[in-house]
Amino acid sequence: MQKKKTSKKLWIRSAVQIFFFGLIALIAVNHSLAEEGRGIAFLSSASLHAICPFGGVVTLYQLVTTGTFVQKIHESSVVLAGLVLLLAILFGPVFCGWVCPLGTVQEWFGKLGKKIFRKRYNHFIPQKIDRVLRYLRYLVLGWVIYMTAISGTLIFSNLDPYYALFHFWTGEVAVTGMIVLGVTLLGSLVVERPWCKYACPYGALLGVTNLFRVFKIRRKESSCISCNLCSEDCPMNIQVSQKKVVRDHQCISCLECTSEAVCPVADTVVLSIGEK
Ligand code: SF4
Ligand code: SF4
Question: How far away, in angstroms, is 204 Cα from ligand 1 center?
């Protein structure tokens, strides 16, 4: 197996992921401390709900029909949801590949999985089954939006591994949430980002922007040497080496395939707005 060169682009992504993971963990811990009157002085006591863009999505129906928010959701979530969507329309689901701490923690477990299973890692599920499973997340999205609209509560938090990851110490997390988190983390040892691929409703929504995003991942056939390394390295198993333009709904805009550490021919896979 070819040893990876160091890449500035991949290093920057790791740094951004660590920053957001640390920031969100700090906000969650501080919120718990603030409820006991021991919050960190210079931090706001805002809860995770206030900074969750998916909360802004699920509250939209209630906001439009009644002018009120689903319980625990704040205006800030709607603003964040708008910003994340705008970013996705421009560059694809950057939130998934660079910001979401649940995606990050799955990647960390995945690094261990790669060490254990090496080349077999991320290739255990037969392609035919895998292809069908990847549409499950749209069913989850529909179910979450419908159930939130009719109940007016954050119905998904009882199943949400993101919520469980940052609240497991509070006693507020349902057993189901802990089970989903456990299955997600264990699953990450054999499949890269299993939650993102098969179940995440927010990833499903943002993934649609891959069909029409402004800046697209493009492969130049003229310089490609068909080594297949970009396909092998894609965490979402997208066959980049067989495409001119990546329009796959599962792309998370991680930009791994555009890195010189992956493609041996410089500027062959690029993020660009035009044909060049
Ligand atoms: S196609 Fe490229 S940018 Fe998209 S998920 Fe795969 S490696 Fe990341
Ligand atoms: S890694 Fe680069 S050279 Fe190899 S198949 Fe992909 S685009 Fe072509």
Answer: 15
Mean pLDDT of the chain: 91
Condensed to tens digits (0 to 9), the pLDDT of residues 31-50 reads 888 888 887 766 766 777 77
Per-position DSSP letters for 5-56, written without gaps between them: PP-HHHHHHHHHHHHHHHHHHHHHHHHHHHHTT---TTS----GGGG-HHHH
Nearest CA to ligand 2 atom 8: 224
Amino acid type, 197 = K
Residues of the chain with CATH 3.30.70: 214-272
In 10 A of CB 233, how many CB atoms? 18
Ligand 2 center to residue 43 CA distance, Å? 46
Query: Is the distance from CB of 122 to CB of 192 less than 8 angstroms?
Result: yes
| pTM score of the predicted model | 0.91
Q: Could you tell me the distance, in angstroms and rounded to a whole number, from the CA of residue 10 to the centre of ligand 2?
A: 17
Domain 214-272: which CATH number of 3.40.50, 2.40.10, 3.30.70, 3.40.1620: 3.30.70
Q: Residue holding tokens 């990851």?
A: 165
Residues with CB under 6 A from ligand 2: 219, 224-230, 240-241, 263-265, 268-269
DSSP 241-266: GG-SEE--TT-----GGGSTTT-SST
